[in-house]
Design brief:
- The two termini are 32 Å apart.
- The model is unreliable at 5-31 and 92-101 (pLDDT under 50).
- Helices cover 7% and strands 38% of the residues.
- It is mainly β.
- A hairpin with a 2-residue loop joins strand 1 (33-37) and strand 2.
- The chain has helices spanning 5-14, 59-65, and strands spanning 33-37, 40-43, 52-53, 73-79, 83-89, 104-112, 115-124, 127-128, 135-144, 150-157, 174-177, 181-188, 203-208, 217-220, 227-228.
């Protein structure tokens, strides 16, 4: 079975219609996990939780409010007695059709020996949490067959690989098809060792859809929400 079952559950939960392909997973929204960095991992349900106004008075919120350009409303991605990660999103980016550095602004506030302080801040586009041992891969569309069922993709890895394509390290993707979109998610086995970071070519990879692509939107499912992929 696919090594990306957790990814499949997240994609099924956000699909608008019943998928035409069968994915062996049962989505439980409160148990789905996303990542904004190597150490900011949070449940997907946090992104749809209640907005918190700027008047919150707990110690972490008071420190957060001193941070430059604090938004009027935010959500808490992580919230315990040792750490609170506050986040504010650009609403126009949550449909997955906006690019840029990231659609989520975050401020990480930590409690160290009773003193709260900002320890990190920045922007990110949340990504799904892959199975342990896999790293992120993204893809672009190269060609579509005449019957619009086979697609040639170019798969690239996010990590350095000394300019080499990922080759056989690309794992079989999770493909979720609905009436409105096709979402494809890749994981890649790490190459290992010290690597340089020149630009690497994409790895050709052919996928076959359960039905012709038609007017459906293509999406890269490694991001949350999935990012729209351009059709040449």
């Amino acid at each position: 079975m696919t090594r990306l079952l957790l990814v499949a559950s997240i994609l099924l939960a956000i699909a608008a219609c019943t998928p035409t392909s069968t994915i062996p997973a049962t989505p439980t929204p409160s148990q789905q996990w996303l990542s904004c960095s190597t150490d900011i991992v949070f449940q997907a349900s946090a992104l749809s939780g209640p907005l918190e106004p700027s008047g919150a008075q707990d110690e972490a919120a008071l420190i957060f409010r001193r941070f430059p350009a604090t938004p009027a409303f935010w959500r808490r991605l992580i919230d315990d007695d040792k750490r609170v990660v506050f986040a504010a999103a650009n609403p126009s980016a949550w449909d997955g059709r906006s690019g840029g550095a990231g659609n989520l602004r975050f401020v990480d506030v930590a409690n160290t020996r009773g003193t709260w302080a900002v320890v990190a801040s920045g922007e990110c586009w949340p990504r799904v949490v892959l199975e342990e041992g896999l790293q992120y891969g993204s893809w672009a569309l190269a060609t579509v067959s005449d019957d619009a069922r086979q697609m040639e993709l170019l798969v690239s890895e996010f990590e350095c690989a000394s300019g080499q394509p990922p080759g056989e390290r690309v794992q079989p993707p999770v493909i979720v098809e609905t009436d409105h979109d096709v979402t494809i998610t890749f994981g890649i086995e790490p190459i290992g060792g010290d690597q340089d970071c020149p630009t690497a070519p994409g790895q050709p990879y052919r996928v076959t859809l359960g039905a012709p692509l038609g007017q459906r939107v293509l999406q890269d499912g490694v991001y949350f929400p999935p990012r729209v992929v351009a059709i040449p």
